[in-house]
Amino acid sequence: MTGDQRQQAALEEAELAYVAGRTLTDADADGDDRAVEAALRPRTLAEVIGQDRVCEQLSLVLQAARARGRAPDHVLLSGPPGLGKTTLAMIIAAEMGAPLRLTSGPAITHAGDLAAILSGLNEGDVLFVDEIHRMSRPAEEMLYMAMEDFRVDVIIGKGPGATAIPLEIPPFTLVGATTRAGLLPSPLRDRFGFTAHLEFYEPTDLDRIVRRSATLLDVDVVAEGSREIASRSRGTPRIANRLLRRVRDYAQVKVDGVVTREVARAGLDLYEVDASGLDRLDRGVLDALCRRFGGGPVGISTLAVAVGEERETVEEVAEPFLVRLGLLARTPRGRVATAAAWQHLGLTVPADAPFGADVALFDDEVGE
To answer: What does DSSP assign to residue 351?
Structure first.
C-alpha cells in the first residue's frame, strides 16, 4: 500500500469513528446524511428488524465463538444494496467486542495492498471488505491463504531471485459483502464458514423500520403514513429511511408536521415516487421502452442512451426492480415490456406486443 493509500485509509477510518460517535440530533441538525444513516442503524442483532432467519443463524455463530473464546468463522453476506450488509458487519464486531476495519474490493488493487491491511490486524479484529467480488486477482489469491492458515507469503524481488517471506497474521474474522455473489470464484466462496443472502424486506417489516426511525428522528407519523412510506420503499430499508426524511421535510414545510397517509402521498408524489415505488428513472425506462421502441426487444445500451443515463445505471439501479415487479423482462434479443408495464403507464397493450410473440420472456441470456 502506498503512502497516499495509507493516508486515505486512515482518513476513512477516522471519518467512520467520527460519524459513529455523533448523536442523531447533532447529525440531523447539521444535515450530515452519512451520520444520520449511521445513527439509524441497529447496534445489536436484537434490534434488527426483518431477516429473521439470517439473524438467528448469525447469532448462533457468534454465541458459539464467544463460548469458545475464539474469533468466529469468516462471514459472507450477499444481496442487493441497502439491505443491511454493512450494518450486520458492524453488529458482528460490536457483538464480539472487537474493532472493525473497513475497506472495499476496488481499493485493493495489488496483493501488497492486502498484505499491508492484514499485517495491521490484531487478534480477533473484524475486517469488512465491501464489494469483495471486485478485488484484484492477485490479492484474491493471497486472501485464500490468509483466511485458511492466517498467514501470507510476501514476495520480495522478481524473477529467479524472488524470495517468499512468510508473514504470520493473528486470527481474525473476514466479513465480505457482495451484491453479485455469482462473480465470486468458488475457492474464495468456499472459504467462508457462514454465508447468508439478504432478501428484500416485506412491507410489514419496512413499516416497523419506518416507525422506529421516526421515533429516533422525532417525527410524528401515524400508522397509515408509515405504511404508505413502507409500501413505496422498494423492499429496502435504506430507501425507506430516505423517503421518511423527505416526507418529514414536506410535512414540516407544507402542513403541521404530522405525517398522515395524505401527507405521505403528497410528499412522495412531489419527489416523483409513485405508488409502486418507481422513481423518475424507472418510469423513464418504461416510457422509452413502450413509447419509443414499441415494447422492445431493445438492447440495454440503446435503452440507456434513450433515457440519457449510463448503461450501468440502468442495468444495476432500475432494471432489477422493474424485473422484480414484472414490468420488464430480459430476453436473448433484448429487454421487453410486459403487459403490466403498459398498464402501469396507462397505455393500451398493442396486439403485436413482444410478450405475445415467440419471445422467451425470462430467458437467462441477456440481449446487448
So the answer is: T
Q: What is the mean pLDDT of the chain?
A: 80
The residue assigned the cell 413499516 is 207
Give Rg (Cα) of the chain.
23
Q: Helical H runs in the chain?
A: 3-21, 24-30, 33-40, 52-68, 85-96, 111-119, 137-149, 186-189, 203-217, 223-231, 237-254, 261-270, 280-287, 300-307, 311-313, 319-324, 339-344
Work out the angle between the directed axes of helices 52-68 and 85-96 (0-180°, nearest 10): 30
Per the document, the length of the chain is: 368
User: In this structure, what are the phi and psi dihedrals at residue 141, rounded to the nearest 5 degrees?
Assistant: -70, -35
Rounded to 5°, angle at Cα 257 from 252 and 260: 120
- Work out whether the CA dihedral 6, 12, 15, 17 comes out positive or negative: negative
Determine the Cα–Cα distance for residues 47 and 40; give it in Å rounded to an integer. 11
Residues contacting residue 89 through CB under 8 Å, at least 6 positions apart: 75, 77, 100, 102, 126, 128, 175, 177
Q: Which tens digits make up the pLDDT trace of 165-215?
A: 777 888 888 899 988 878 888 888 888 888 989 888 888 999 999 998 888
Q: What distance in Å separates the CA atoms of residue 35 and residue 252, rounded to the nearest whole number?
A: 21
Known catalytic residues are 85-86, 130, 179, 238
Q: Among candidates 146, 239, 246, 152, which has minimal Cα distance to 200?
A: 239
- Of 346, 303, 341, nearest to 324 by C-alpha is 341
Residues 6+ apart with CB under 8 A from 81: 179, 236, 238
Residue with cell 432489477: 320
